[in-house]
Design a protein that fits this description.
single chain; alpha+beta; six-stranded antiparallel β-sheet; 46% helix; elongated
Length: 171
């Protein structure tokens, strides 16, 4: 009798574990759907700077394949980051690093990522530490076109002011 009871207990436990496994698989699938379908670029990194995960939008924005991105770290020399004035931005001041170090959200940091071709992609970056983990989620979107438009508008305003300074007042 006891061996039948033990077998029934094992069978019941196996069913419980299979149900838990099925739920865990659903959660992973849900997580992957959120990461892959999110409209902004996402990078997840750990405290050592290793890039754990990224999404297709990050691949498009950075021009780096998912595999190459996930094989790199935040401190890799391939990431030449500048601040909004074009000055080199030290790793300690990157949104993800600040978020992890200070365990707080960092919102809307404007940075430039200089590519090997010399072109700069301007990004609006936010970062949030993952509670209970030594990881950070970094989201970013390309604002390069907005930066170009703003620079052009500023140049036009300067040109207009220069012209108006030299126009005599005929009123």
């Amino acid at each position: 009798m006891t061996s039948n009871r033990s077998l029934e207990d094992y069978a019941a436990r196996i069913e419980e574990l299979q149900a838990e496994l099925a739920e865990a698989r659903r959660e992973v699938q849900r997580y992957q759907s959120i990461i892959n379908d999110f409209p902004q670029a996402i990078t997840v990194a750990n405290a050592d700077g290793a890039i754990i995960e990224t999404n297709p939008q990050a691949e498009a924005v950075l021009g780096v394949s998912r595999e190459a991105h996930e094989d790199s770290t935040l401190s890799d020399s391939q990431w030449r980051i500048v601040d909004e004035n074009g000055n080199p931005l030290h790793l300690d001041h990157w949104a993800g690093v600040v978020a992890l170090r200070e365990n707080r959200s960092v919102k809307d940091q404007l940075i430039g990522v200089e590519g090997a071709d010399g072109a700069t992609v301007w990004l609006r970056v936010s970062a949030n530490p993952i509670e209970g983990e030594d990881q950070v989620v970094v989201t970013y979107c390309d604002v390069s076109e907005q930066r170009r438009v703003e620079a052009r508008a500023s140049k036009l305003a300067q040109d207009q002011s220069a012209i108006l300074e030299h126009v005599p007042a005929y009123i």
